[in-house]
Amino acid sequence: MTLLDFARGPAFFWAFMILIGGILWRVTGLVLFRREKDLSTPRSHNPLAGMLGGLRTVAMRSAPPHDLEKNITFQHVTGYAWHIGWFVTFLFLGAHLPFIRSLLGFAWPGLPNGAVFVITAITLGILLSLYIRRLFHPVLRLLTDIDDHLSVLLTLLPLITGLASFAHWTPFGLRYETMLAIHILSIAALMIWLPFGKIHHCVTGLVSRFRLGAAFTRRGVNA
Questions:
Q1: Which of 92, 134, 187, 189 has the maximal Cβ count within 10 Å?
Q2: 119 inside domain
């Protein structure tokens, strides 16, 4: 078995299983999290009110308050930009669509390879600039732990190895098949880490906001 066969086969399969199991574990924990019985009188007994309150909180918490926006505009804009760029790269690169079709049974038209290449390069540049800023910012540096470093590294590697594979750039005398295997293994590593590191917010963030909004609506709090 070659490294590419291992990456495409057992490594990716078990990474995917760990990803699904980890996500189910995280979401189940949020849904079934034991909490003390709320003895307060609910503002409304209508379950629709709680659902609407949860959705409202999801929408409102997806952008910072206006009073804070002027201080974090760079972080806000670049944060959304690299997230969108990363998912566009994954979902719309033509080379990824056969894999998506194998999982879902269907796929969608991809973007031109050149356009995705540019988006990926911009995404990589934004993520690197944010990481460098975190390393040198006096406050962010204090808040950064090993989880942050590892999460950034595992998010960067698929972009770097993907660009290298797409451009057929093979440093250190590596064969193209080896670089492609490294790219797939970097994705597998990210999938394994996702449910357990801080980047699990891409799955649990919306669920947490919805639950918070629903609970606050019950209590009559404007969240």
A1: 187
A2: yes
- Are the CB atoms for 124 and 132 separated by under 8 Å? no
Q: Is residue 31 part of a domain?
A: no
pLDDT digits (tens, 9 = 90+) for 103-156: 888 889 999 999 999 999 999 999 999 999 999 989 889 989 999 999 999 999
Distances from the Cα of 196 to the Cαs of 36, 78, 203, in angstroms? Answer: 26, 24, 11
Residue by residue, DSSP assigns 107-150 as --PPPPHHHHHHHHHHHHHHHHHHHHHHHHSHHHHHH--HHHHH
44 three-class SS: coil
Q: Are 152 and 127 in contact (CB under 8 A)?
A: yes
Average pLDDT of the chain to the nearest whole number? 85
- The token pair at 213 is 């909004």
Residue 107 falls inside a structural domain: yes
Its domain, for residue 175, covers 1-11+73-223
How many CB atoms neighbour CB 82 within 10 A? 21
pTM metric for this prediction: 0.82
For the chain, the domain total comes to 1
